[in-house]
């Protein structure tokens, strides 16, 4: 992949799930563990659980409530927080993400996490993986009331942290979010080649994808 123009970058904005952490935990939870536990708790078959859950997931995808544990706990009549604890052992750092974080912090860059994860999800992951020391701020889109897919998220972010989009790098594994950042004017954008370690590389469309974080810091 091409070298990053680090002299033109002051702020590094980083997603969490699928970017710094292996997306396997989230995919396994929402596609396997939750449907199974939903079926058990409601006394229905796994197939019936999936039939009930799939349209709900599709209806709310990309909206703030999709990422909200309170919303899903109420909607599904179960404690999503407790169910996530049951699979927390699957939470894992992506290869060399910590090496990358160390390097950009030492390089004097302003490093800020921006995640759509609900604060309870963020807390659960920070209990398992020590990410907080690398960051100036850990921002959840729930703090602003808009997901990263929404242009209003970016307006709120700039008002909050005062960053210059033209001198910022943003890395995320979700294409609609990268497009939203591009529309806002974020100049340096990277997708993630393999956000889920169990699923292989994904098509990142028009975006250059990072496969090995060590490649990004070679010229830092």
Q: What's the domain count?
A: 2
Order of helices and strands: EHHHHHEHEHEHEEH
Spatial extent as radius of gyration: 18 Å
Low-confidence stretches: none
Protein name: GMP/IMP nucleotidase
GO molecular function: 5'-nucleotidase activity; metal ion binding; phosphoglycolate phosphatase activity
GO biological process, one term: DNA repair
InterPro entries: HAD-like_hydrolase_sf, HAD-like_sf, HAD-SF_hydro_IA, HAD_sf
Question: Can you offer a commentary on this structure?
Answer:
Helix 1 (24-42) packs across helix 2 (46-60). This protein has 220 residues and is of the alpha/beta class. The mean pLDDT is 95. A six-stranded parallel β-sheet has the order 3-2-1-4-5-6, with helices on both faces. The chain has two domains: 6-23 and 92-216, Rossmann fold (3-Layer(aba) Sandwich); 25-89, no CATH class. The relative contact order is 0.20. It contains nine helices and six strands, in the order βαααααβαβαβαββα.
């Amino acid at each position: 992949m091409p070298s990053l123009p680090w002299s033109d970058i002051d702020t590094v904005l980083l997603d969490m799930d699928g970017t710094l952490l292996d997306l396997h935990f989230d995919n396994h939870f929402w596609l396997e563990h939750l449907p199974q536990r939903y079926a058990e708790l409601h006394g229905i078959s796994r197939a019936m659980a999936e039939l009930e859950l799939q349209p709900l997931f599709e209806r709310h995808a990309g909206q703030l409530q999709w990422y909200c544990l309170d919303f899903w706990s109420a909607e599904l009549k179960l404690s999503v927080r407790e169910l996530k604890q049951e699979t927390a052992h699957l939470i894992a750092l992506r290869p060399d993400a910590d090496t990358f974080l160390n390097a950009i912090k030492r390089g004097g860059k302003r490093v800020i996490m921006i995640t759509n994860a609900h604060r309870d999800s963020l807390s659960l992951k920070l209990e398992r993986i020590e990410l907080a020391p690398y960051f100036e701020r850990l921002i959840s889109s729930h703090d602003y009331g808009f997901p990263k897919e929404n242009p209003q998220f970016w307006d709120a972010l700039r008002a909050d942290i005062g960053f210059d989009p033209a001198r910022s790098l943003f890395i995320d594994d979700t294409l609609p979010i990268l497009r939203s950042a591009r529309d806002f004017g974020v100049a340096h954008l990277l997708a993630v080649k393999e956000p889920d370690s169990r699923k292989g590389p994904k098509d990142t469309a028009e975006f250059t994808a990072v496969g090995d974080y060590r490649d990004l810091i070679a010229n830092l």
